[in-house]
Amino acid sequence: MADPLDSVFAALADPTRRAILTMLLEDDMAVTDVAAPFEMSLAAVSKHLTILTRAGLISQERRGRVKWCKLEPDALRTASVWMQSFGQFEPVNLEAFERFLKVELSEAEPMETKDAPGA
Amino acid sequence: MADPLDSVFAALADPTRRAILTMLLEDDMAVTDVAAPFEMSLAAVSKHLTILTRAGLISQERRGRVKWCKLEPDALRTASVWMQSFGQFEPVNLEAFERFLKVELSEAEPMETKDAPGA
DNA sequence: GGCATATTCAACCGAAAGGTTGACGATTGC
DNA sequence: GCAATCGTCAACCTTTCGGTTGAATATGCC
User: Fold this and answer.
1) Mutate which of B57, B70, B83 to disrupt the A interface (most A C-beta within 10 Å)?
2) The HTH arsR-type domain covers which part of the protein (chains A, B) (predicted)?
3) Domain B4-110: which topology?
4) Do B92 and A81 touch (CB under 8 A)?
């Protein structure tokens, strides 16, 4: 996987890993505490954390016998920027991009879902 | 995969599919033309297009024996909003966007020098 | 030292991803 | 009508993914 976007998007594709990122948004956490809310084993969560780390989405720092997990938003920014480029069709129109962002951020709360493009 | 974010991010995790989306950014294309620049078989590309369709990232419309593929950016927006509402980082900065465009567009070029489908 | 705690490793498993090939159903054009 | 074109389907293969379990490796505590 040469392209970092590969690993970032692959990491984001799993609901458990997205939930972990959301948890880490509030605070840094130890591995055991990250694992607590999930039904799966600790080892499974540990694997998820490895995947998130390799994607650059989190960092892990060991202090004593506890490993602390910390959100690393930079990797998310890269992917976000990539996706933004599809939001508007004039690739170099930064004004449109700016307008788009304003609308986007103000609508950040209601996550509407759309499907069935067949229409 | 209940959550639409699952399928959207999973679709974006593959470099072939991201390349397809970039191609469709310029114009709607027939399946055969989409497949032309890639080394893999037509059937493989057809599968990728099915995945993109199920994620809602593109739509496919059959006219005669040709099936046209069209970008559907709305699905991307859902994922984008998720990342924005998530990010502690300041709203995507325009410099990063500009830098991204330069890199992305210069990388997209050699792929299309083959037969320039849909140009 | 000895034991509990924190985390990973290793081996294994079933399912899904991503690719191939060959056959097949439509559609078009001569 | 028949052959070429467009695209998918079906079967198959290999690799990766996401999970399990049990053992192993630190580390902290008394």
Assistant:
1) B83
2) 1-93
3) Arc Repressor Mutant, subunit A (1.10.10)
4) yes
Of residues B15 and B119, the one with the higher pLDDT is B15
* pLDDT for the residue B98: 57
Q: How confident is the model at residue B20 (pLDDT cuts 50, 70, 90)?
A: very high
What is the rounded distance in angstroms from the CA atom of residue B117 to the CA atom of residue B111? 10
Query: A115 and B4: CB-CB below 8 Å?
Result: yes
- Choice between A63 and A90, residue whose per-residue pLDDT is larger: A63
Cβ partners under 8 Å of residue A100, min gap 6: A84, A87, A88
- Cα separations in angstroms, B107 against A37, A92, B82, B99: 42, 16, 27, 13
Domain A4-72 carries which CATH code? 1.10.10.10
By C1' distance from the Cα of B30, the closest nucleotide is D6
Determine which of B3, B50, B68, B85 to mutate to test the interface with A (most A C-beta atoms within 10 Å): B85
Per-residue confidence (pLDDT) for residue B100, from 0 to 100? 53
Which residue in this structure is represented by tokens 């299309």? B112
pLDDT tens, position by position, B41-100:
999 999 999 999 999 999 999 999 999 999 998 888 888 888 876 654 454 555 555 555
What residue segments make up the domains of chain A, in order of their start?
A: 4-72, 75-106
Q: What is the DSSP letter of A94?
A: H
CA distance B44 to chain A (A): 18
